[in-house]
Design a protein that fits this description.
oxidoreductase activity; Rossmann fold
Amino acid sequence: MLVVVTGAGSGIGRAAVRRFAATGARVLAADVDFQKAHETCAGLPYATPHRADVTRREDVEALLAKHDRIDVYFNNAGIPETVKPLAEITREEWDRVLDVNLTSLFVAAQVAAPKLKGGVLIQTGSIIASRPRAGLAAYVAAKAGVIGLARGLAAELAPDVRVNVINPGPANTPMLGGFGFDADVAQALPLKRLVEPEDIADAAVYLATATAVTGAVFNIDAGRDL
């Protein structure tokens, strides 16, 4: 099995690279920060680091250029948004948040779908799409768009390609601090714990072989959506 993981330099991406590698899969670990991708792959004989900006089609094409077929494309790369009132969000901030968190799925689908015959495109979404927080307008819009786009792609690309979304809740990753939250946010969740990167990685591994699942939105959220 050949697996591509973007945003592989930390958090969910790093956990996913390690989970897939543990199954014996070959993994292309891509991140905009090559050094972090390299650190992720340390000690993993089946994982290779790559630098890629997921918003740039040419970067994604270069990442996949040597491979006629891939089995899993986990489009996981994302960035947080600083909490601020709607009126204070600049157009540049809006565009960047949507580019990385939503447009990257469009780019991934166009480039990877022809190589995913019988495979799966997995997208990291967010429970914020159904449980929005004030002050995160761009991030909420991006993640809501991810679900709509992914479900549309699932219908369009079937039966050759499955497309699914994993919606994390507040997760124990570096992005949590990027939103201005800390571990105390876990106390507001029904399970009283943060989502761990490995929780999301396990879901991605499941979706890699769940051949009857497409257009699904998996909430891995410690109960946030209740």
